[in-house]
């Protein structure tokens, strides 16, 4: 075996799989969902808390009977939490799980080869 | 039969059933994986219920319903942070931890670091957070028995703390994670059942019209429409800017703390795969979300039907609002017997709630003591599995005994702030360490240790010098004033500080293990090499 070849397949099975295009794609797909989603729900929650502290007049506006903006805003936090959870489960089931299973099998094969 | 007798009978039935489950679980607990992680054999749905049972403490159930009953909208505002927090766990933590860890939070942190300093830090933090949380629950249990059963003597409160402590020790020492998980599942079902029943009766009373319920609650509260708006409990007009910043500080700790609570993190290890961990968090989010919607109705229902005067008279913090509402709505809809029965059910459920939560906390702290401190720090990884589990059982006994003694001593103190402090420490120390470990290539031992000690130290010190410990009427020590930090919640300072310490510690140290980072990254995302479920 030549030195170049050793370098090419060098490192642990995990390092070799980490370098593959397949793994890089899985990582991108995962991060492309969870990072923006985290920023979004944190910003949305902080907006709610900030408005509760600083925009009392707006939050107290009645919409239907005694149901006001503050209550609707609070209930929307439930809706957004359930929705993001559902979207993530769908994304993970369709786009991440099949790739992850394939790569896990590849790690095992690399482990045997090493 | 009085409601006290019936409540005690129902509570004894719960204790009997859970002890039977515990004995059954002990027969199926053979090795360390069984004791720490229930053999990783729970299904996603079962673990989702257990997550609910672990998380919905008496503080959530009685505390939030009471806060809504007395302060209206702000109680609801408080509950929302507890729910949104689960998205952090779902998106960033649960699956990756399941894939790369084994028994404790420190397994993930120590993966590519020098194990002894990191495990020491994580163990210290785990035990600190769990004891804070445990103490608040134990003192709460003592106060609750007085309120629900009419035992007002110091002796009765102390005896309750001993009883609660003894039961939690038995669940953990005998049943391990299997027993504890089943206690939490049973409790979650009972709590959801009881809360749903009372909620439906309250809604029926108001013709299923939420606006009518809110209108009556606002009128009965004597505060009018302000009762339905933020500002009666948090960030009141009198508090000015400090109050508003305190509200944000609390919100940050709630939302970022959950995914750093050790007793929550170890729940992700009880399922066979990362997909099951995901499924359990999804179920947990569903159960916890519905539960806080129920407490919204319970709180406003108590304000409308029981009235703030009667609630304040029974308990100034409003902790009896939910049981009082159960009695009132039972009487209104089902007659006197109905009132007695409903009150008894809710009182028994409240006790089951406390037991399930304290058992989870005891298990988390004793697991960390045995697995992190004893096996890896003291014995440098040379302890056998048998020795480790034996130490875990002994430490559960010791931690339980210590919390009983502390609980009895702390009875007359206002320790409710300890729950918020536990969340703040988890968000400031544990969460930065976990997120950096999973997502930051350059992260290293110095970074992990700095994040944990920095975040933990900042949160605890700021609370010591805050108005909850001294310098106000409601403080822990009313006679002294050394409060120079104006906020009750340290999160707004301590959370960024924890993240900053983690970053600074990392860049100041040259250590870096690329091969191990490749391993944790590939393992956490693909599930390769993840710990398997055991089959006996």
Domain module tally of chain B: 1
Q: For this structure, what is the CATH homologous superfamily of chain B?
A: Sodium/glucose cotransporter
Number of strands of chain B: 0
* CATH class identity of chain B: Mainly Alpha
Low-confidence segments of chain A, given as residue ranges, are 1-8
Residue-averaged pLDDT of chain A, rounded?
A: 90
Order of helices and strands of chain B: HHHHHHHHHHHHHHHHHHH
Oligomer: heterodimer
Radius of gyration of chain A, taken over Cα atoms and rounded to an integer in Å:
23 Å
Count every beta strand of chain A, where a strand is a DSSP E run of 2 or more residues.
Answer: 2
- The portion of residues assigned to helices of chain B is over 70%
Q: Class by helix and strand content of chain B?
A: mainly alpha
The fraction of residues assigned to DSSP E strands of chain A is under 5%
Uncertain parts of chain B: none
Determine the number of helices of chain B (DSSP H or I, runs of at least 4 residues).
19
What does this structure look like?
The complex is a heterodimer of chains A (114) and B (536). In chain A, strands 1-2 form a two-stranded antiparallel sheet. With 114 residues, chain A is mainly alpha-helical. The radius of gyration of chain A is 23 Å and the shape is elongated. Chain A has five helices and two strands. By secondary structure, chain B is mainly α. Chain B has one domain: Up-down Bundle (Sodium/glucose cotransporter), CATH 1.20.1730. Helix content of chain B is 76%, strand content 0%. In chain B, helix 7 packs antiparallel against helix 14. The longest helix of chain B is centred in the middle third of the chain and has 58 residues. Chain B starts with a helix and ends in a 10-residue tail after the last helix. The mean pLDDT of chain B is 93. The chains are: A mainly alpha (114), B mainly alpha (536).
